[in-house]
C-alpha cells in the first residue's frame, strides 16, 4: 500500500487537533532514509473502541511509510467502530468484523493476512508517534543480528495528558531474569516476520499476558532484541483498558507460562527464579492464611533442598547489594 498524503485522508472531527489530526508526519518521516524500505505489516485488534480507534488509524496511515500493509481485526463492535473503519477503508489493506475468542485470537487472524518483513500490532486505543515506522526500519537494517526491536513507550490518560514513559531495558545476562524480571511494553515492539515463523503465534489461552509470553519466548529461541531509548508509541490509560480494570489477573496468568520457561533453566540458573516465585507465594499466603505460609516454605525446602539453599544464598547477597549505600 502506498503511503497516503495528509490531504487525501478524510477530514478529522472538528474538535480534534494536533497529531495525528491536524498535524502531518511527513517531516518526521523524512529524518530516516533507506535505499529500500522493508514491508511493514501493522495489525490493529479492535472491539468497541470507537472513541479512540480513529486516532490509532490516522497514526498508522500518516507514518508516510512507502511499503505498508495495514490490517484491522474487529471483534464485532456495535458502538460505531464500523463507521470509522468504513471511513478509512480505501487506505486499509484488509479488515473484518466478526466475533473472536479474545485479543490474541484476533491478532492471530491478522497474522494469517500479514505478508510483511516487519510485523507489529497497535491496539485500537493506542497510537504511533510520527516517523516511528521509518526509524524502526532504519534501525533494524543497521542491526541485522537483531530479531526484533523495542523502544520507549509514552503513557497518557484518556484526555491526552502525559503520565510517564517506559523503556524495555536490554536483555538481562541471566536467563532466570528473562522470565519474571524483564518488563515488556508491546506498543513499542516490532518483530521481524522470522520471529513468528520460528516460535509460532500468540497464545489464545493467555488473554491478558499473551504479548509478554511471546516476548519472553523469543530470546529462548535465540531471537534477541535491539533495545533503543527512542520513543515509538503512546499507550492510553483509561478506565476500560485491561491493564486498568483487571490488574490482579496479570500476575495470576503469568503463573501459567512461567513453568514453560523454567524448564529451560540450568541447575545453576534455577535457584534465583525458584526463590523469587516461592517468596511471592509466601507473601500472598502470609497475608491471607498466616500459618500456611510457613508450612508452604517448609514444604518447598524439603521438596527442592538444592534450589532452596542456593536460592537463599542468592537472595541474601542480592538483598545486601540493594541495601548497600551508594558510593
Describe the structure.
The protein has two domains: 6-245, Spore Coat Polysaccharide Biosynthesis Protein SpsA, Chain A, CATH 3.90.550.10; 266-322. 41% of the residues lie in helices and 17% in strands. The protein is built from 13 helices and nine strands. The chain has helices at 26-29, 50-61, 81-87, 103-111, 132-142, 175-180, 193-199, 210-217, 242-245, 249-262, 270-289, 291-303, 305-323; strands at residues 40-46, 68-74, 94-97, 118-121, 127-128, 148-157, 162-167, 189-192, 225-237. Helix 2 packs parallel to helix 3, helix 11 (270-289) packs antiparallel against helix 12 and helix 12 (291-303) packs across helix 13. The radius of gyration is 22 Å and the shape is elongated.
Task: Show the helix and strand layout.
Elements lengths: L25 H4 L10 E7 L3 H12 L6 E7 L6 H7 L6 E4 L5 H9 L6 E4 L5 E2 L3 H11 L5 E10 L4 E6 L7 H6 L8 E4 H7 L10 H8 L7 E13 L4 H4 L3 H14 L7 H20 L1 H13 L1 H19 L4
So, CATH architecture of the largest domain?
Alpha-Beta Complex
Report strand %.
15-25%
* Total count of strands: 9
Number of folding domains?
2
Low-confidence stretches: none
Radius of gyration: 22 Å
What sort of overall outline do the alpha carbons produce when their principal axes are compared?
Answer: elongated
Q: Helix- and strand-based class?
A: alpha/beta
Mean pLDDT: 90
Q: Output the helix-strand order.
A: HEHEHEHEEHEEHEHHEHHHHH
Q: Quick one: biggest sheet?
A: 9 strands, mixed
* Total of helices: 13
**What is the CA–CA distance across the termini?**
56 Å
At the fourth level of CATH, the homologous superfamily of the largest domain is Spore Coat Polysaccharide Biosynthesis Protein SpsA, Chain A
What's the CATH topology label of the largest domain?
A: Spore Coat Polysaccharide Biosynthesis Protein SpsA, Chain A
CATH class of the largest domain: Alpha Beta
Range of helix content: 40-55%
